[in-house]
Specification:
This protein has strands at 9-10, 16-19, 29-36, 43-49, 52-60, 67-74, 77-78, 82-84, 94-101, 105-110, 113-119, 129-134, 136-144. By secondary structure, the protein is mostly beta strands. The strands form two sheets. Strands 2, 4, 5, 6, 7, 8 and 12 form a seven-stranded antiparallel sheet that branches. The chain is globular and about 45 Å long. Bound molecules: beta-D-galactopyranose (GAL).
């Protein structure tokens, strides 16, 4: 059976916004590779359903030590933040972020290492686009599917 696969995007401009054809499925993963500018104050990678943000992955660099905020915004209202007080995506350095969709959660890896897990608050099947914003250059956004 032929499986439609969304082609990778090379060196897309930022802000970056692209539809996810067919939505997300269990076992699918999205890889975002790039480099955060040395003067960045934050980066956001959002999996969205219209203007709702189903997964907000938000490394912040303000102050001395960086941290990453995970959250969901439904109908304009942010939920409770889940924070990791680590800087997996340092400024000025190349990174590879992988978001794996599982039945229970998004499993987030950075540079091949497990970083965080975010339990679903809204159905992953609703995700219709990915949005990336911030002082970041993107080299690749790619989609992997289970055959
Ligand atoms: C807010 C911020 C949003 C988003 C949200 C996550 O303070 O303005 O951009 O990051 O936190 O909880």
């Amino acid at each position: 059976m032929a499986l439609h696969q969304q082609p990778p995007l090379f060196n897309p401009s930022v802000p970056f916004n692209t539809p996810i054809q067919g939505g997300l499925q269990d076992g699918m993963s999205i890889t975002v590779c790039g480099r955060v500018w040395p003067n960045a104050d934050a980066l956001e990678v959002n999996l969205q359903y219209g203007s709702d943000v189903i997964l907000h992955f938000n490394p912040r660099y303000e102050g001395g030590s960086g941290f990453v905020v995970h959250n969901t915004n439904q109908k304009g209202v942010w939920g409770e933040e889940e924070r990791e007080y680590k800087t997996p995506v340092p400024r000025g350095q190349a990174f590879a972020l992988q978001i794996l969709v599982t039945q229970e959660s998004y499993k987030i890896n950075v540079n091949g290492k497990p970083f965080s897990e975010y339990k679903h608050r809204m159905p992953f099947s609703w995700v219709d686009h990915i949005y990336v914003f911030g002082k970041v250059e993107l080299n690749l956004v790619a989609f992997q599917y289970l055959a």
